[in-house]
Amino acid sequence: MTESPSADGPPAQPPADPQTAMVELRAVHKSYGDVEVLKGVDLTVARGEVVAIIGPSGGGKSTLLRCVNLLEPVTSGQVLLENEDLTGPGVDLNTVRRRIGMVFQQFNLFPHLSAIDNLALAPRKLLRMPKDEAQDRAVAFLARVGLAGKADAYPRQLSGGQQQRVAIARALMMDPHVMLFDEVTSALDPELVSEVLDVMRDLARSGMTMLCVTHEMGFARELGDRLVFVDGGVIAEQGRPADVLDRPRNERTRQFLHKVLR
């Protein structure tokens, strides 16, 4: 894993067994013109691991997440999913991305479709799933996120928390092997945050591999197997959530947590 050159950073995590690695970033750089946003990030996420990613705005955490499924193509380096090099020649990214579910800060639901139709659309179009099967599956996933009675509701009829749960259910419809969450609660009113976090807790406990960019430190502490602090385009510190949150070793981590936890 990439660490800050600071001497007070923790030792790097040992590399995961290739048989259990779900996601690997190897020396990933990402630049926009002359601006280098990621500066050689190494990160290995084991199958079933929940990694919480924190850091200041502009530090590179969301870009790192979007590089996992190449929504942001990397400038250099490798991204591997289940030992398959997604940055290699001839890779069908549309097929690969079916194994990676992603939920964004904004819900991105189709406003003209009901909740059930938002969920059923991708399986029908991409997997050629029969309509009845797709809708039965959608009903089951809506129930899983606590929205069994909202199948026929349109986005405008749902609260922000309910819309975000529909977005999570929509991502699960494709049977992803890993889920990416990019600040999924930051657009919600505070009283709606808990219902989305409850769904994420259920996913984590079911064994889903998850990378979560979050500002919810309580969630990171409770369910993260590892906490990764990203700043200045590098992983400045990582480790068990309790260790990083309570006993940060990197000075930049200490400064950041002093501001967000006070």
Could you explain the architecture of this structure?
- With about 260 residues, the chain is α/β, with parallel strands linked by helices.
- It is built from 9 helices and 10 strands.
- It has a 6-stranded mixed β-sheet, sandwiched between helices. It has a 4-stranded antiparallel β-sheet with strand order 2-1-4-5, with helices on one face.
- α3 (about 115-125) crosses α4, α3 packs parallel to α5 and α4 (about 130-145) packs across α5 (about 160-170).
- The longest helix is centred in the last third of the chain and has 16 residues, at about 190-205.
- The model is unreliable at about 1-10 (pLDDT under 50).
Layout of secondary structure:
Blueprint: E1 21-32, E2 35-46, E3 50-54, H1 61-68, E4 76-81, E5 84-85, H2 93-96, E6 100-103, H3 115-126, H4 131-144, H5 160-172, E7 178-182, H6 190-205, E8 209-213, H7 217-223, E9 226-231, E10 234-239, H8 241-246, H9 251-261
Parallel strand pairs: 3-8, 3-9, 6-7, 7-8
Antiparallel strand pairs: 1-2, 1-4, 4-5, 9-10
Radius of gyration: 19 Å
Count of DSSP strands: 10
Tell me the series of helices and strands, N- to C-terminal. EEEHEEHEHHHEHEHEEHH
Largest pleated sheet = 6 strands, mixed
Query: For the residues shown, what is the average pLDDT?
Result: 90
Output the number of helix runs.
9
Structural class: alpha/beta
